[in-house]
Amino acid sequence: MRKKLFKILKKHSGRNNSGKVTVRHQGSGEKKFLREIDFKRDKHDIPALVEAIEYDPVRTANIALLLYQDGERRYILAPQGLKVGETVVSGKKAEVKVGNALPLKKIPIGTVIHNIELKLGKGGQLVRGAGTGAVLQAKEKGMATIRLPSGELRKVPWDCFATVGQVGRSEWKTVVFGKAGRKRHMGIRPTVRGVAQDPRSHPHGGGEGRSGIGMPSPKSPWGKKTKGKKTRKPKKYSDKLIIKRRK
């Protein structure tokens, strides 16, 4: 871990600038360092040596420390199969190899990819969690069709960069946390059922004995319906790029 690449992650405990809880079930937890991850991979055509594969407390995936030939060090998401001592590179002329980043138009159809850009130069925004991987399915008229881990089919400009391979640490999904205290160390506070609360705290609360939620369909703590109600904007800009919605 290099001092230039990490900083202390400030705790907000799910509260906004006026101290009100805007995200529930967050608080306490150990002090964490936020690693600066290179999602852009914009050091083109400069080979980098994989110095180490490290744990990152802020994300589910492991990270790889790269040492570039010009002496600079950067972190990237560690793909499955990337080992210490290997060399990776980013650029239009890069080889299609695990850990290398190149434009979608240079990647063969059927390749598993991650850390996918939606806008050229903005950095990877899609497929960054542990064990995830998207599949490049087609390329046509300046657009690449990608099948995301959720099952969604969407188009992305083929000049955008993506990294070859699946994100590592796929066993993360099978981790057993074992006790409530471990969750608290991670900064996750308890989640209480609405039925177990009083009527002032939740619409499902109150009632004599176990009387259920007392209404035709469940609601959120703020009275919004929670089953089947669509929350996506009806005219979102990216609708024209989505071929098939997620499952």
Name some characteristics of this structure.
247 residues, mainly beta, SH3 type barrels, seven-stranded antiparallel beta sheet, 25% strand
Model description:
The two termini are 39 Å apart. 2% of the residues lie in helices and 25% in strands. The protein is mainly β and 247 residues long. It has a seven-stranded antiparallel β-sheet, with no helix packed on it. A four-stranded antiparallel β-sheet has the order 5-4-3-6, with no helix packed on it. It has a two-stranded antiparallel sheet with strand order 1-2. It is globular. The chain is built from one helix and 15 strands, in the order ββββββββββββββαβ.
List the helices and strands and how they pair.
Blueprint: E1 6-8, E2 33-35, E3 48-54, E4 63-68, E5 73-77, E6 87-88, E7 101-103, E8 112-114, E9 116-117, E10 124-126, E11 134-140, E12 143-147, E13 153-157, E14 161-164, H1 180-185, E15 242-244
Which structural class best describes the helix and strand composition?
mainly beta
Taken from the alpha-carbon principal axes, the silhouette is: globular
Largest sheet: 7 strands, antiparallel
Helix count from the secondary structure assignment: 1
Spans of at least 5 consecutive residues whose pLDDT stays below 50 are none
Helix % is under 10%
H and E order: EEEEEEEEEEEEEEHE
What is the straight-line distance between the termini? Answer: 39 Å
Which strand order spans the largest sheet, edge to edge or round the barrel? 7-14-8-11-12-13-15
Radius of gyration: 22 Å
The CATH first-level class of the domain at 3-172 comes to: Mainly Beta
CATH architecture heading of the domain at 3-172: Roll
Mean pLDDT: 94
Number of strands: 15
The CATH topology label of the domain at 3-172 is SH3 type barrels
**What fraction strand?**
15-25%
